[in-house]
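Duplicate of #3305? Posting structure anyway:
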């Protein structure tokens, strides 16, 4: 329960592979697409809770577009980077007092937390009635590789599992779709290669982002109900 306690109310907790944030900064098209997916779900929101904000890549982009963003990030070094960027940041949800938000976002976070159902309930409580919630997580247990182990993943999600967690937390599910269909094949190839160190290089990320991810976006229109490297859930507080 250390991870969930840190995000909810506990002490500082360091992320297992902080260097991965810098590597993923090279995925410019991929990161821009994630921002577009979030913006499509925010509606008329003004205040946004970014749960597990990391280095603030998403939060900064939202703030630049006029949103009032508050970050929750337990890693003290990452939180310091958020503060340096001028982002309101706390270590745990309980540090927010009684505040509620128009929208909640969490990208690539829940898979690190043993008790993800508890977090889903906590996010539900932090939203105003009708407030949207956007969740992005890795999909398909069969895609598990050394990289998942390296970064401290607890799971890769099945679609039905993600739906159940948020329905049980009281959310009305609006859409759950796979993202990055070509990434599914790339992850399978990575699994076959079976790199024991779980490393991702900046160069390999750049090559995929520039050459393959644009095609993956096109294919997602046809395959988003079938397969993808990640799952995107859009839900709303009842």
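Output from current build:
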């Amino acid at each position: 329960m250390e991870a969930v306690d840190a995000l909810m109310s506990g002490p500082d907790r360091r992320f297992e592979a902080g260097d991965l944030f810098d590597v993923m900064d090279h995925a410019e098209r991929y990161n821009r697409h994630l921002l577009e997916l979030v913006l499509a779900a925010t509606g008329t929101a003004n205040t946004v809770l970014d749960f597990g904000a990391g280095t603030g890549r998403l939060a900064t982009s939202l703030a630049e577009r006029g949103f009032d963003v508050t970050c929750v990030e337990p890693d003290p070094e990452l939180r310091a980077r958020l503060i340096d960027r001028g982002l309101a940041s706390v270590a745990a949800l309980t540090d927010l007092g009684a505040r509620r938000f128009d929208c909640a976002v969490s990208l690539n976070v829940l898979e690190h937390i043993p008790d993800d159902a508890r977090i889903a309930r906590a996010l539900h409580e932090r939203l105003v009635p009708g407030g949207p919630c956007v969740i992005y997580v890795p999909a398909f247990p069969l895609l598990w590789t050394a990289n998942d182990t390296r970064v401290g993943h607890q799971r890769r999600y099945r679609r039905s599992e993600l739906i159940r967690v948020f329905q049980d937390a009281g959310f009305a599910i609006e859409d759950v779709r796979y993202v990055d269909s070509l990434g599914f094949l790339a992850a399978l190839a990575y699994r076959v290669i079976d790199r024991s160190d779980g490393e991702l290089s900046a160069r390999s990320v750049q090559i995929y982002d520039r050459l393959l991810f644009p095609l993956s976006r096109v294919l997602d229109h046809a395959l988003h109900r079938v397969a993808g490297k990640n799952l995107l859930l859009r839900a709303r507080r009842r």
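Confirmed duplicate; merging threads. The beta strands are 47-51, 68-72, 88-90, 103-107, 132-138, 171-179, 230-237. The radius of gyration is 17 Å.
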